[in-house]
Write a structure and sequence with these properties.
Elements (H helix, E strand, L loop, with lengths): L1 H11 L6 H14 L1 H15 L4 H21 L2 H37 L4 H26 L8 H8 L10 H16 L9 H23 L3 H21 L2 H12 L8 H21 L24 H32 L1 H9 L1 H15 L15 H8 L12 H6 L2 H4 L8 H19 L9 H22 L12 H17 L3 H10 L5 H15 L7 H9 L4 H7 L19 E2 L4 H10 L4 E5 L7 E6 H13 L6 H4 L8 E3 L4 H11 L3 E6 L2 E7 H14 L1
Parallel strand pairs: 1-2, 4-5
Antiparallel strand pairs: 2-3, 5-6
Helix pairs in contact: 1-3, 2-3, 5-6, 5-8, 5-9, 5-10, 5-12, 6-8, 6-15, 8-9, 9-10, 10-11, 10-12, 11-12, 11-22, 13-19, 13-21, 13-23, 13-24, 14-15, 16-20, 19-20, 20-21, 21-22, 21-23, 24-25, 26-27
């Protein structure tokens, strides 16, 4: 009887045996003990009973049929791209909607306090200080890696170097909430969302990649790189509804080497993200139909005159010169904050206090009853861009009552009573550039593309208004000058000069739907880029990588081209375990026990280590089992298939060449040979140490 109870309890407990083993054991029990088997089956059936069995089986069948139908249409990775675009666009829409409601509430409260300057001052200054303090404290307490843009770190990860916690779900949550708080501070702190949102898109892509790998079992490192490249374009497309510039952004900014196989998936995912973002705007009632985010109404018959192309070229020179000043100031203040012992210690220990104090100072300067009246400080970031892109000459607003009635109230913020538009635009340009430099030191999730874009629009608007004043009937007396067109060109040219890319020019056209200014914006962007690249001046993202000493080799090579001639000979590390072609079973067993590698290099002899190929751990284990069953001792080359090494490095190769090869093939390690003889191995961990050593020399 005790024997029967023990067998019954074994059947009730959870078993980890395979299905074949369970069937064999059941057959043996049936033949040996039929009565006990019947009792066990009764108990087992009673324990496994679940309700709604027919309904569950029907649902399970429907899921199987749906999965087969979906996989017959496309592979699993394409559904991951769809999910990436839709989820990222949904996050962008929720963020914009939340920030718009908070900013509207703050503007309402400020307007209700009209007549009480003290209460208005407290409302204007304490609100952004509290929002920045909340953003900094929440992001640093949840995940310290969520501070900043995150885009320079993502460029490093895409290049092949692993950085912990930058793709975690805790970082995703901290960055999303922190960005809402930062953007809710308004244009007072003058920060955007593009960089952090591209980082958010990367984290969503990394999570979808983990799900895809678990479902399909593909190469983890290779597929992760493809998903992250696609996520770069999706982040931009979901911010502005601009899929083409999102793809170009993923090529220019994030990827040092772009694979052609990522081109179609990137376009597909960016279109999904941009379409979802625009459809959500229609569903919410913000737009009547799918249209550009900042729709302009420039004349299409004659948008600009032929002599104005020279003026656009001069605007490109102006944007390039101002970008050099901005990039130098940005790098200088970041180095000062990092090297100053007192300030760096204060920011590290009192992050919340520093963010609140700096936001309070920025709000103090932009207070409407102080210097803010000279820079349209009441407008939000989106309202600023809308007003700068208007095709009405602001100088004519104060002289024409009809124009005042037809113009938008945003433009009237630039021409308050007693102040000309030239004074407001000049003060905006001179003051905002330094406020933006200071805001870059805030240790909270923040983006810097949109502020730069708006600042470039102000530069272009200023030149357009001056030309409209000098030539009221147009340069050739054919058509009047449109200052909004100069604002559009200036936005793309200045943002392109700061980032050393052309994608902002295309992004400006997609955001406004204004394709008529394609040639002027390309001319100005190319000229501004050429001027900002003089003397190997790093871009905005390269400057952050250099100051933070991130192991991003392309940034180091642009700042110091002489590093490209350094060879890898001094960085090669010895191979852990090496097998000889005539190795016996005892030595193979010792190597398997002492190493956890999945494949091992095979050389001719240790005295003459000519690399013959590699052998996998599974083949070595099979070799040991076969050796135990045979009397005669056989060597390694008689039993194990030696696979030739597809790619190997030379000791004379440079660090740049090695990094390029490892980034393209996405291999974890590569063997280094000299005249066919094995000299060592290069892994991504060694590559990271190598780049960190080079970063100290810049």
């Amino acid at each position: 009887m005790n024997w029967l109870l023990e067998k019954v309890m074994e059947n009730v407990c959870i078993s980890y045996m395979s299905a074949d083993e369970n069937k064999q054991q059941a057959m043996q029990n049936v033949h040996s003990h039929p009565e006990a088997t019947q009792e066990k089956l009764i108990i087992s059936n009673e324990c496994q009973w679940k309700p709604w069995k027919p309904a569950r089986s029907q649902i399970r069948g429907c899921v199987r049929r749906a999965r087969r139908a979906m996989l017959s249409l496309a592979q699993l990775e394409w559904y991951c791209y769809i999910a990436l675009g839709v989820l990222t666009a949904l996050m962008s829409f929720i963020m914009d909607l939340t920030v718009a409601k908070v900013l509207r509430a703050h503007q309402w409260l400020y307007s209700r306090l009209e007549g009480n300057a003290l209460l208005q001052f407290l409302c204007w200054t304490l609100y952004p200080a509290c929002m920045c303090a909340l953003s900094a404290s929440f992001s640093h307490s949840t995940c310290p890696q969520s501070a900043g843009s995150g885009l320079p770190e993502m460029r490093t990860i895409i290049s092949g170097v692993q950085m912990p916690d930058y793709l975690s779900l805790s970082n995703l949550f901290a960055k999303f909430v922190g960005m809402i708080c930062t953007l809710s501070a308004g244009s007072t702190v003058f920060l955007g969302k593009v960089g952090p949102f591209v980082h958010l898109s990367h984290m969503v892509g990394a999570y979808l990649h983990r799900m895809y790998v678990s479902a399909s079992g593909q190469n983890k490192r290779r597929t992760q790189g493809e998903m992250l490249v696609v996520a770069s374009g999706v982040g931009v497309a979901s911010c502005f509804g601009a899929p083409i510039s999102g793809v170009l952004f993923s090529i220019e900014v994030t990827g040092s080497h772009y694979s052609v196989r990522d081109y179609c998936p990137c376009f597909f995912a960016t279109v999904c993200g941009a379409l979802t973002f625009r459809l959500l705007a229609v569903c919410s009632g913000e737009h009547e139909t799918v249209q550009a985010l900042f729709k302009t109404r420039f004349p299409n018959e004659l948008p600009y005159q032929l002599p104005e192309l020279l003026m656009f070229a001069l605007l490109g020179l102006l944007c390039g010169a101002v970008s050099c000043v901005y990039l130098f100031s940005h790098r200088w203040i970041l180095r000062f904050v990092k090297t100053n012992k007192f300030l760096s210690r204060f920011i590290a220990t009192e992050t919340t206090l520093y963010s609140a104090v700096l936001a309070f100072l920025l709000a103090l300067v932009t207070f409407p009853h102080f210097a803010g009246c000279y820079m349209a400080s009441k407008l939000t970031m989106k309202q600023l861009l809308f007003s700068l892109l208007e095709n009405i000459q602001w100088n004519s607003i104060s002289h024409n009552a009809t124009v005042i009635q037809e113009s938008h109230h945003f433009s009237q913020e630039w021409s308050p009573p007693g102040i000309s538009v030239y004074q407001t635009l000049g003060c905006f340009i001179l003051i905002k550039i330094w406020l933006l430099v200071l805001a870059c030191t805030l240790p909270l999730p923040a983006g810097y593309f949109m502020p730069v874009f708006v600042f470039g629009a102000a530069l272009g608007r200023f030149q357009g208004e001056v030309l409209a004043y000098l030539f009221p009937d147009g340069i050739s007396s054919v058509n009047v000058i449109n200052p909004g067109g100069y604002a559009l060109v200036g936005a793309g040219a200045f943002a392109g000069a700061v980032t050393h890319t052309l994608s902002p020019a295309l992004c400006a056209l997609e955001m406004t739907g204004q394709s008529t200014h394609l040639i002027p914006i390309l001319i100005a962007t190319l000229i501004s880029n050429a001027l900002s690249r003089l003397r190997n001046q790093p871009s905005f993202y390269d400057g952050i990588s250099l100051v933070k000493k991130l192991p991003h080799l392309p940034s180091l090579l642009r700042a110091c081209p002489k590093l490209s001639s350094i060879q890898i000979r001094q960085f090669v590390v010895p191979v852990g375990s090496v097998l000889q072609r005539g190795e016996r079973a005892l030595a193979v067993q010792h190597i398997l026990e002492s190493s956890m590698e999945t494949d091992f290099p095979v050389v001719d002899t240790l005295e003459s280590p000519t690399l013959l190929g590699t052998v996998t751990r599974a083949h070595l284990q099979a070799f040991l089992l076969e050796d135990q069953n045979q009397v005669s001792c056989r060597c390694l080359e008689d039993t194990c298939p030696i696979q030739p090494v597809r790619l190997q490095l030379s000791t004379e190769m440079t660090v740049k060449q090695t990094h390029c090869i490892m980034s393209v093939v996405r291999e974890h390690r590569l063997f280094v040979t000299e005249k066919g003889k094995l000299r060592g191995v290069i892994t991504w961990s060694e590559m990271k140490k190598m780049i960190e050593v080079l970063a100290k020399e810049v």
